[in-house]
Amino acid sequence: RRLGVINADPLEPLFKEAFWATCSSLPSLPQNQSLNWPLLSEGHPKVKDVAPMVLYTSKAIVDKVKEGQKLTTQGKFGEALTMFRSALQAIPLSVANDAQEEKNLTEMIEWCREYVNFTRMETSRKQLAATDLARNIEMASYLTCCKVQSKTHQCLALQLAMFTSFKNGNYVTAASFAKRLVQGSWGEQGNAIVPKARQVLANCEKNANDTHRVNFDPKGNTDDMRLCAGSFTLLASTELDVKCPYCGSSYKSSYKGKLC
User: Fold this and answer.
1) pLDDT higher for 68 or 29?
2) Dihedral angle sign, alpha carbons of residues 37, 39, 44, 49
3) Cα dihedral sign for 98, 99, 104, 110?
4) How many other C-beta atoms lie within 10 A of the C-beta of residue 13?
5) What is the CA radius of gyration of the chain?
6) How confident is the model at residue 152 (pLDDT cuts 50, 70, 90)?
7) Beta-carbon neighbour count of residue 248 at 10 Å?
């Protein structure tokens, strides 16, 4: 109830993994049954105070997130989505040894939420019809609103939005992303992308217009923009929303009671 679970099916294999991680089986004499023996992290079966082996630790969740980030960098958004979802679903079954690990797990919920929505949106964008140019530009622009933690992925989103907008004639929108790339700090990857962004910006200033009308304000502050994680559309500043009680994703009020 606290997590707002309405479909526990995705959690079933996680419960099984957590259970089997505490079990072992030892072969015995011929024609005899194997011996089932618990795997413990502390103590032994002959005492009362024991602790079972814990599969989902803070480190295990962080490792899943790092693997998801690696897949995102490689452009494998479908596989990255699976990995981030797996981490997000495993966090409620995780055990923290101290306050710092508990804080890390809480932060991982926010990280996974942003990456899940980021990879969901990109996989959905790639499925758009080639003729749906306005929606393509729009969704590429919305990727820059996701608060992904990696500078590499922030830069990746801005590049994608810039080139998609520029290619399809939305020069004002493309210029806004080019400016963010030029003004940002991207480390070594900036050596390759910033000169391209300056070139795009120069071309956009010569053609200061947008061919396609999209629901994205290039002059707006992306930190203030709220995305509906269900429809991948912007929520108006005065529009009421509903949030997932677990991950905190925002939705239009029409999504109330539906699965996140």
Assistant:
1) 68
2) negative
3) positive
4) 11
5) 23
6) very high
7) 13
**Which tokens go with 96?**
């923290």
pTM: 0.87
Q: Are 246 and 229 in contact (CB under 8 A)?
A: no
Q: Using one digit for the tens of pLDDT, what is the confidence trace for 220-232?
A: 898 889 999 999 9
Q: What tokens were used for 50?
A: 């024991």
For 84-91, the CB contacts below 8 A with 24+ separation are 84/112, 84/115, 84/116, 84/119, 85/10, 85/112, 85/116, 87/61, 87/112, 88/112, 88/113, 88/116, 88/247, 89/10, 89/11, 89/14, 90/14, 90/56, 90/60, 90/61, 90/64, 91/56, 91/61
Closest CA to 260 of 148, 92, 116: 116
pLDDT exceeds cutoff 70 at 214: yes
Q: Give the other-Cβ count within 10 Å of 67's Cβ.
A: 16
